[in-house]
Amino acid sequence: MKYIITAIAKEVKPEGQLSGLVLAGFLCSVFGLLLLLIFGFPFFLGTLGVIFSAIGLGQTSRGRTGKGFAIAGLIIILDILLFWLLVIIIASIAAAIAF
Q: Which whole-number Å values give the CA distances from 27 to 7, 14, 20, 51, 65, in the listed order?
């Protein structure tokens, strides 16, 4: 029984350190989404969220953890971008119909 426990313990790899840029990108994305829901505009946090998440995603390929946070941050920002694109298209159509 002792041999089995030591064999399992040797196979476990220690996890890397969480990238700070990944976490910053995710938090900027979430706060940008909250600002969008409250005020209707994500201000500059959306831009920071994309930058931090993209750089952090690159860091995860070099041994840092947090790939899920980086992908989630990018998906949140892309959703905000698609929302604004949809608003602009609908407003353009409504303005064209009104005139």
A: 39, 26, 11, 12, 16
| Beta strand ranges found along the chain (DSSP E) | none
CA 77 to chain centre: 7
Q: Which residues pair with 5 in a beta bridge?
A: none
pLDDT tens digits, 16-45: 788 899 999 999 999 998 988 888 777 788
Between vectors from CA 83 to CA 81 and to CA 87, what angle results, nearest 5°?
A: 115
Q: Distance between CA atoms of 1 and 75, rounded to whole angstroms?
A: 46
